[in-house]
């Protein structure tokens, strides 16, 4: 399937159609069994709180280790999982696993205020979403404020009226809600007024190279100001360098996420970072 990895759609087949659709079928079969074979794992990427100078949150990111193909990045299988509906059991596994992990960190008294989980638009539009989330919290005895769900603008805009309803129900559970990849979807700013969201995650395309890009500086600065005036907090995604960090500190961004803070890593590795941090109160590099 090397060929169709390039295209994000799995429906565009040309001359070699039988071969490629065969490959798609194979991948679909693999994906179908990946859960029960335990081939998925979650990595966690830390989020640095700029007010505290501490790692305060972590985003759970799915990883697929295929026995023959090796590591397959999420963007190469999530679209197929969405098309086939397999995203529902996979997404439920992600939710359960992340809640279980968050609870373990809480029991160990590590100072992590929340774990964030990505919701696919297919999950977001699933009628039993609220029950699934409530159940994941209850089963793992996790306080709702320790779970954050990330929804993309595109998912929110598919049926804006229904989205308001769904988000209100999720909010009523007491969880945190964020808009992922903010600024890149087809959306209307009016939703910011109507939806019970806590956080905007401004997309990494605005952060990348921002020190050389005046327009991105204006976009970042005004988005952060707008968010604050609306009572929302802001996470900057994809912070890769110290100058980018410095600029975001100047703009009063609330949280930073990106390779400069830390790459997505196995739970045990993040736990080591958190343990180190809790010993000394913060991590030296982050004290600004
Ligand atoms: P996302 O939710 O926007 O996640 C952030 C992505 O940016 C992650 O890619 C992360 O590794 C990457 N990233 C973080 N910091 C940096 C940086 O400093 N530089 C660069 N270049 N990249 C950075 P990843 O893990 O490959 O995930 C890609 C996308 O796949 C995610 O984007 C999300 O949309 C989706 N995804 C991942 N895990 C899940 C999941 O469990 N469920 C669902 N539905 N989607 C998921
Ligand atoms: Mg995300
Ligand atoms: Mg994102
Ligand atoms: Mg993104």
Automatic annotation (TrEMBL):
It comes from the Bacteria. Residues 24-278 form the EAL domain. This is GGDEF domain-containing response regulator. It comes from Vasconcelosia minhoensis LEGE 07310. The lineage of its organism: Bacteria, Bacillati, Cyanobacteriota, Cyanophyceae, Nodosilineales. The chain holds residues 293 to 580 of 580 of the full protein.
């Amino acid at each position: 399937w090397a060929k169709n990895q390039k295209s994000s759609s799995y429906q565009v087949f040309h001359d070699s159609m039988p071969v490629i659709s065969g490959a798609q079928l194979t991948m679909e079969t693999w994906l179908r069994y990946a859960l029960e074979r335990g081939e998925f794992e979650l990595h966690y990427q830390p989020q640095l709180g700029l007010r505290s100078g501490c790692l305060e949150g972590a985003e759970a990111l799915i990883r697929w280790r295929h026995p023959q193909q090796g590591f397959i990045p999420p963007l190469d299988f999530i679209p197929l999982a969405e098309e086939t509906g397999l995203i529902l059991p996979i997404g439920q596994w992600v939710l359960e696993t992340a809640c279980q992990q968050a609870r373990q960190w809480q029991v160990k008294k590590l100072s992590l205020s929340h774990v964030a989980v990505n919701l696919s638009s297919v999950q977001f539009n699933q009628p039993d979403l609220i029950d699934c989330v409530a159940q994941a919290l209850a089963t793992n005895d996790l306080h709702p404020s320790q779970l954050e769900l990330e929804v993309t603008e595109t998912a929110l805009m598919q049926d804006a009226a229904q989205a308001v309803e769904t988000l209100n129900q999720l909010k009523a559970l007491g969880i945190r809600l964020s808009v992922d990849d903010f600024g890149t979807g087809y959306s209307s700013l009016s939703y910011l007024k109507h939806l019970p969201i806590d956080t905007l995650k401004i997309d990494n395309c605005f952060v990348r190279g921002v020190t050389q890009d005046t327009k991105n500086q204006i976009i970042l600065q005004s988005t952060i100001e707008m968010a604050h005036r609306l009572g929302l907090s802001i996470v900057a995604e994809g912070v890769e360098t110290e100058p980018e960090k410095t600029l975001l500190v100047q703009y009063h961004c609330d949280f930073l996420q990106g390779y400069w803070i830390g790459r997505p890593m196995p739970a045990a590795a993040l736990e080591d970072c958190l343990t180190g941090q809790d010993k000394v109160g913060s991590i030296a590099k982050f004290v600004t």
